[in-house]
């Protein structure tokens, strides 16, 4: 134990400077992260933290052991290594594995600073607590762990009953109203709150498809009049809250439903609170991981936070993370953030060029010398090539140049000339940390995205339709006499400023909907693939922009889980619970659905019903489809699955009920009808 602590202290001491400087660099780049406490842990401790969702203590339950075993096998068989884990708290807590190389530790630290910024500034994380600056999640989870452990150890309570009850609640942990603050979930909204939602949605560039699917006008209107009791027309989305209010337990001795025990209500309250806490992380996985990967890459690579001897190791590990197969949130998120930055910077430059005499949206591509523009957009040599030897070049820019941190520049010159001791806190090593002598404006110019090699040509690919839109909203008559004069007014920070705005208000669904454009899909070679019944395997089904977008939105709407709501708590006038699967073209796994109904029965105490829609295939049609190598057309049929505590029944769903849950104009079936033609 002593050796472990000594090693942890040694690693922690070696990281004091990287932690301090990474935090300072993040703030220079415009990030505003929570303070971060860094902890050094060994391999087993890291696996335990991952199993616990990033926290050191959770309530007793078998799920944590299963998660630990899964992570241990992932490491053991080389399927992936965990370098860090960070939680949403103020201060945030980040855990670094002591066996990481210094290059990996630096990458992790820069990654964590960006995560802490996202936690602190994204509105969806602020919905968990009234005071977003103080989530205090670690304390909350520790209180829950202690309370549930006490229930399990109580001689008056059977431990097995507690574990079974937790299992039942966890089956429904995603059936919450994640679009509402935790303090207000389950209660009616006021008109002021609904109007505020409308204003936010109007400024987020959400498509009609997503507005109808998630935030339609009927849904908004219902928020003002939503009653505490569900109706067929106004179902309750927060299933856990409803079961907390009205759920019961079946007593085998009395053979009837009885009130829940106080400990059951308490456990349900705690687990529902935790579900709301973790909801924001599930809702922003692509945004959050992409955000962290973007700033990590800029700090480690572009700003050379990785030393010369560390860069190859860093680049290798980063490429593995971004190159992982399947739906990779790191890669997709980073690609989208870079696209937002590039497209914003392109609009900024195009806006200035369209104000030059003789340049219009009609002749833009012929009138503009794009090679000359690229040369003019390059950062000033003094900004681009900062070293200890070139500091005087920054002085020549003048004492009022907003791109230069003049105080840091003075200290850097004094440090270079031996006038400041290297151990002094005023010491500035411009060779090692050139960013210290620049401001946000200077760093924005230094890293302007359209100057990067991989983005050359992005400006000239601007479409005439976008140029026309830009011109349409130019209300002033300002004109430049030359391209040179126009580009002098380019705001190099436009892309970063826009990224921070988006980071504040969006979640994955709205982010993908607003910024996953046809240009993005084409340039990044995205496509859809699906299981085909004709061939019995997976095949590429489409590379069309609309199909890719719908497929991705499906993956992230409601955490990628089926949407289920309470439609009636007295179905058929027998006190039965009626749940409805809000069908979107994707069929439920009925085997899993039966398991969830069994657990729901444990929380309701009486028979439970689930409405859903299934796809049925005629065997004759299937055989013909196989011969012709095409997909068969299914028949969609409404079903009601009923569980009474002992057995299941499947009934045909009444047409009026089927209409309530059926997909209408939003259907995420992404296969083109002639996909094999």
UniProtKB/TrEMBL annotation:
Cross-referenced InterPro entries: Spore_V_R (IPR007390), SpoVR-like_C (IPR057008), SpoVR_N (IPR056174)
Domain SpoVR protein-like N-terminal: 14-351, 492-560
Domain SpoVR-like C-terminal: 562-613
Coiled coil ranges: none
Domain of life where this protein originates: Archaea
Protein name (Swiss-Prot/TrEMBL): SpoVR family protein
PANTHER family in the record: STAGE V SPORULATION PROTEIN R (PTHR30029:SF2)
């Amino acid at each position: 134990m002593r050796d472990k602590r000594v090693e942890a202290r040694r690693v922690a001491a070696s990281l004091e400077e990287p932690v301090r400087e990474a935090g300072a660099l993040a703030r220079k780049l415009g990030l505003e992260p929570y303070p971060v406490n860094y902890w050094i842990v060994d391999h087993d401790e890291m696996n335990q933290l991952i199993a616990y969702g990033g926290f050191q203590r959770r309530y007793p339950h078998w799920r944590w052991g299963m998660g630990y075993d899964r992570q241990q096998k992932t490491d053991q068989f080389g399927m992936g290594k965990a370098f860090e884990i960070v939680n949403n708290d103020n201060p945030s807590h980040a855990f670094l594995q002591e066996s990481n190389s210094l290059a990996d530790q630096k990458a992790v630290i820069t990654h964590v600073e960006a995560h802490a910024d996202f936690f602190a500034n994204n509105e969806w994380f602020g919905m968990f607590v009234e005071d977003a600056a103080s989530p205090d999640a670690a304390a909350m989870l520790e209180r829950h762990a202690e309370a549930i452990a006490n229930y399990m150890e109580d001689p008056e309570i059977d431990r097995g009953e507690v574990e079974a009850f937790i299992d039942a609640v966890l089956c429904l942990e995603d059936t919450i109203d994640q679009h509402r603050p935790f303090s207000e979930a389950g209660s009616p909204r006021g008109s002021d709150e609904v109007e505020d939602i409308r204003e936010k949605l109007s400024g987020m560039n959400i498509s009609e498809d997503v507005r109808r699917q998630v935030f339609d006008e009927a849904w908004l209107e219902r928020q003002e009049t939503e009653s505490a009791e569900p109706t067929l027309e106004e179902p309750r989305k927060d299933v856990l809250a409803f079961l907390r209010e009205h759920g019961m337990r079946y007593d085998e001795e009395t053979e009837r439903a009885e009130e829940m025990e106080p400990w059951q209500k308490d456990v349900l309250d705690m687990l529902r609170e935790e579900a709301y806490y973790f909801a924001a992380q599930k809702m922003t996985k692509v945004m959050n991981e992409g955000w962290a990967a973007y700033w990590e890459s800029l700090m480690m690579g572009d700003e050379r936070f990785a030393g010369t001897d560390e860069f190859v190791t860093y680049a290798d590990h980063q490429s593995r993370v971004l190159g992982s197969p399947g739906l990779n949130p790191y890669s997709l998120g980073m690609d989208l953030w870079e696209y937002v930055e590039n497209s914003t910077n392109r609009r900024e430059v195009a806006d200035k060029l369209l104000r030059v005499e003789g340049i219009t949206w009609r002749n833009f591509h012929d009138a503009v010398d794009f090679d000359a523009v690229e040369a003019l957009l390059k950062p000033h040599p003094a900004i681009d090539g900062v070293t200890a030897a070139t500091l005087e070049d920054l002085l020549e820019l003048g004492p009022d140049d907003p791109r230069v941190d003049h105080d840091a520049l003075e200290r850097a010159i004094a440090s270079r000339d031996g006038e400041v001791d290297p151990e002094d806190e005023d010491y500035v090593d411009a060779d090692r940390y050139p960013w210290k002598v620049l401001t946000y404006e200077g760093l924005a110019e230094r890293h302007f995205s359209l100057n990067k090699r991989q983005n050359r040509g992005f400006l000239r690919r601007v479409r005439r339709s976008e140029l026309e839109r830009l011109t349409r909203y130019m209300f002033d008559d300002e004109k430049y006499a030359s391209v040179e004069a126009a580009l002098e007014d380019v705001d190099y920070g436009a892309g970063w400023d826009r990224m921070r705005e988006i980071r504040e208000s969006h979640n994955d669904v709205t982010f993908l909907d607003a910024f996953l454009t046809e240009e993005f899909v084409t340039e990044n070679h995205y496509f859809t693939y699906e299981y085909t019944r004709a061939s019995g395997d997976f095949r590429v089904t489409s590379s069309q922009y609309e199909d890719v977008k719908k497929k991705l939105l499906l993956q992230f709407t409601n955490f990628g889980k089926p949407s289920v709501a309470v439609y009636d708590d007295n179905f058929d006038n027998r006190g039965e619970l009626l749940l409805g699967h809000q069908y979107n073209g994707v069929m439920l796994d009925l085997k899993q659905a039966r398991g969830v109904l069994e657990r729901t029965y444990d929380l309701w105490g009486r028979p439970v019903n689930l409405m859903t829609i299934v796809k049925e295939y005629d065997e004759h049609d299937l055989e013909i489809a196989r011969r012709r190598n095409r997909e068969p057309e299914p028949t969609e049929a409404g079903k009601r699955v009923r569980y009474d505590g002992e057995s299941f029944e499947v009934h045909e769903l009444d047409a009026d009920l089927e209409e309530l849950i059926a997909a209408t104009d939003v259907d995420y079936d992404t296969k083109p009808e002639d996909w094999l033609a």
